[in-house]
Amino acid sequence: MNIKHSNRFKLDLEDQFINTLPYKPYCTDELGVTYIRPRKNAIKRKYIQINRPKMIMYLIFDIDRNGAVYAWYDENLPAPYWTSKNPENGHAHIVYRLKIPFCTSDIANLKPIQYAAAIQSAMIERLGADRGYAGLLTKNPKHPYWQNNVWTEYEYTLDELADYLDLRGHPLRGQQAIGLGRNCELFENVRKWAYKTIREYWQPNYKRSWNEAVYAEVESLNNQFTVPLPVSEVKAIAKSIANWTYRHFTPEKFRESQAIKGRKGGLAGSIENKVKAGALGGLIGGKRGSIEDKAKAGALGGLIGGKRGSIEDKAKAGALGGAISNGGGRKSNKVELLPMVLQMLELGYNQSAIAEHLSITTRTIRNWIK
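Above: the chain sequence. Below: its structure as tokens.
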């Protein structure tokens, strides 16, 4: 791999870097005390926030060892956009710029965040970067204190970065989650908690108390991380989960979903259960066999007894059907299935449900009963 870099930072960063900064980024000259300043003032500080709130354009890696600037080269990883090196100890920040930034706000799609979290975690492992690095502030590549180099102006897609990595086992889970993995961990755990817990808050004007409960849950889990997310990220995750569940998990929708499940359960169960009346006919005939076979025999008995009549009457007539069904010759498909079709129609099933259950077409049913 050929290493090429440029010191054209003034030209490159005036347009491509400065214009992408937050309008009022966090900044400082000494870690531990941060300020929020307009970008024209913040750009003069040694450390600066380069990703806009709730938007990731840059992946930043903090490497605390001498020779950190070449860590990407040593690991056969793609060239970064720039590196900023501490002249006193050789430690550095390595920064990649994404071609397509992704959102981390409450309206964000979780899948890109999960994908980026896996890439970020795998890159940290390959580079030997600091897993405790919060990612909010980076060495300002416009500040003269750092030794800054541009390596490429190429903007990577997540797929292109992933091609260099083994993503198995990434991102880390639980308390060891880092970087974007913390966002995913919090979202996955709290949303599952919220789906059930919101039912305890269903009462008039419960929105505020529900928002507070979700925030408290996110904050509690966040505090378990080795390096917790900042408050702004906690608020965004809590807001996303609280708003979504408030809109979609209402008492009305819950009752509606339970009714739908009940109807589906009734349909699925009744095809087998309600034809037990037909099976009774087979049992009266004293012949051993499956419930469905006996039901067919019972339905045939019911047909012989008359197309109209109660289920119980047809079940009794099923004794005769049971005897006939154990007779000799092979019957056509229609002879075997038509009785069951007629019985299921009488029980209220539509032709589509009957066709699916008996593995025949609705056209066949229409031809049989016309």
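The two ends are 77 Å apart (CA to CA).
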